[in-house]
Fold each of these.
Amino acid sequence: MTRVIPIVPAPGDAASAAGEGEMVSLYQKQKKIYPRSVKGGFARWRWLMVWLTQALFYGLPWLSMNGRQAVLFDLSARRFYIGQLVLYPQDFIYLTGLLVLSAYGLFFFTTVGGRLWCGYACPQTVYTEIFLWIERRFEGERGARMKLDAGPWTLNKLWRKGGKHVVWVLLGLWTGFTFVGYFTPIHSLWTEAFTLDFGPWEWFWVNFYGLATYGNAGFLREQVCQYMCPYARFQSAMFDKDTLIVSYDSARGDPRGTRARGTDLASAGLGQCIDCSLCVQVCPAGIDIREGLQYECIACTACIDACDGVMDKMHYPRGLIRYATQNALARQEPHPDLTKPPKPALDLPHLLRPRVLIYGAVLIVIAVAFVTSLSLRRTLKVDVVRDRATLARIVEDGLVENVFRLQLMNATEQPQRYHVAVQGIPGAVLSGSPEVSLLPAEARWVTLAVRVPPEQAAALKPGAHPIRFEVSPLGAAGAAVSEKSSFVIPR
């Protein structure tokens, strides 16, 4: 986007009479980043996380348990299956607890180790890594990709670019298909895929999620982290000078400069950085870590692997770029090699900090409460709704009757039988059978009438009186569920 900005010249300037203006761009053109591949200990950790996260994401919907999909969020039936758990919309509190637990976990690990989530497990990082691997298979390494983009369109360029995009699109669609498979049984979805017999919402989400994966990992890449993700902006609130971050040791590396192997650094007046710029070339965000901590850095540690490889070739000690705290760099503490045994001892002053202890304590309390609540949850849920059409009426033999609708939800995968009783008003009885049978994971609405004898009704004041419905399992272990309601005595 551009605008013509009028120039205000000095009096008598010829530009004033001509009414000329200057063309100024309001947005800087985004320079394409060509990350170079890198090998090393941290790269192996990153790829291990890629394999683990994607095996979990793509494989989990295909697992079966108790004759159904092991993880399925069945929105149409309003039931959510997670392993042995059967959850209903009334269990939404557990989702809230899980989100709070995730948030405090993010705060805790960020305070201790920086952007570990961004560098190793964030879907944007993981899929960018996969898409870059595909790109390298078709177009080659960094120099070859830059040369291919700068060259004219030829048959070679066409098939390399086209092949890459075809694989990207297929991977994006498979990702969208898997995502939908968490909400629609994936085996039936797989059958529908061969006949393209998806429903309208399935079509929308497969294509939407597939397009999002294709666009974010294939084109936007670092721009998602820099401009769309809020975490990059508020991460500084969780950092302090004892947070482990990817750091360049300027005291050891500067002054930078090229040199021959074996050069005496003291006589040459040089630091250990040979200014090879490999740390910049491997960075997926295109930043120079030697300029200090920057919000664009996702802590992928590619620069650490690249620099350690150069240090090995120059016969310098590793760790010019490393995980370190700002306080450790200021004190010039010796660098432990984090990629090789023996493992460094725990830095207790680094870990035992007030904010770490507070986040850790809150995280433990929430985790214990979440697990305890989930393990003690009732397998029967009951909702009571009064019949709004008829609040109270007089039936045969002068009995006062109120009609209620009970929703019974069986949160187990075995058939259950329940006995319903009413308490709170002497002589109150249920009209009809007090026993209800439910199929595995079934939710049913049951209409029940509560009747009070005329002599008991006469002893009560007109208006609402509290009662309780007691629902007890028959022939199975489990606690009874009590739900409050009110019985109306007409005037």
Note: Residues 1-30 form one domain.
Amino acid sequence: MSLPSSLLPSEGAPEWLNKGDNSWQLTAATLVGLQSVPGLVILYGSIVKKKWAVNSAFMALYAFAAVLICWCIWGFRMAFGEPLLPFWGRPDANVLEQKFLLAQGFAGLYPNATLVYFQFVFAAITPILIAGSLLGRMNFKAWMLFVPLWLTFSYTIGAFSLWSPNGFLFKAGVMDFAGGYVIHLSSGIAGLTAAYWVGPRVAKDRERFPPNNILLTLTGAGLLWLGWTGFNGGAPYAANLAASIAIVNTHLCTATSLLVWLFLDMFYFSKPSVIGAVQGMITGLVCITPAAGLVQPWAAIIMGVLSGSIPWFTMMVLHRKIQFLKKVDDTLAVFHTHGIAGSLGGILTGILADPRLNRLFFGDNPSYVGLAYAIKMGRATAGLRQIGMQFAGIGFIIALNVVITSVICLLIKVVVPLRLSEEELLVGDDAIHGEDAYAVWGDGETYEKSIHGYENFASAKTEEMA
């Protein structure tokens, strides 16, 4: 089938296509995709107990694949298509048609195909982040149902409301540069809510849950950090000045947050924790996300100080005092690292957003102004309104995810159990998948069954002495 003549000028591209922007957007999308596969696949598979390594990694891999299919068939249009409601787009199956994919997208100087791919990797990483709250006990079959349902009835509503030009919160002026609300606050609240309905891990796992490979945890964390270059750098939909400053701010905030968390761990617990440093890295990445291209570098450093300390306090101090949080088993503390950090970033965006940088992203709209600059400019009312809108966005995302996630979990529970059986919880990967992460001894024997395992150490030593 030949392409329409309008898409085939002499240079082989339509006049509206900017090849540089298109190349950067595809690169940025791939960087974000690498955060999930292999980034979070590696991180999840290594930060949990050995018996949960395969299941945890596979939850992330499955979600990435399932979201791609759902996104291309109906999800993209529900998040960025014609409005069905002020907060939701109309489902439309024409996304995979050549005419739609090769036409200019609603943003950027490139085709819809690029936008579908770019927005897919953001949609995919969100349920993968939710999985971090559920590792070590959720029924994999329930997870298979949860991912497409949550994407359809929660993610698309948040994305349409805050990111679509037709969304009511976008029109109201809520600032979310790259997903502090749509992705991180959503995953933090949905993860906590789903963890409540699924129930806790077995007591033994909850009391002691050591990583099975800290070096691989750092590998996954490194992919997550560097992949964030595309996460925030791709948000302006162009290879422009806003993308450049967003990338610098992202890494400044992250490094600062990591160091602050590290110093707090050393001061209060006497030892520098690798896992703590990873948590501080994540909170820095999350906090800067809604503000990345809208604040000055000095503001990004301030945000790093706060993202390395406030989520640390909520996780290490408040979590142990609030009965509800103590009751809910949030395996990787996603509520703190994404929910709290995402909210913090959204509020700080409303305070520190520079109107000059806002113009690079939002255009000549004077209503976008951080409170600090608004007061300096004698426009305190505009700044207070912006803070109000930031809180309104937080409230909407929290309410949306508590309600929708609860309904989804209760519906799934009618079909399959949300939680694994007691036998499966005790055994882990071998009972669920029939596979073991580290079958490396002898002829594929696991560590526990080899002469290197603790249970066989005494008999092996006796034989050696004899």
Note: The chain is about 70% helix and 0% strand.
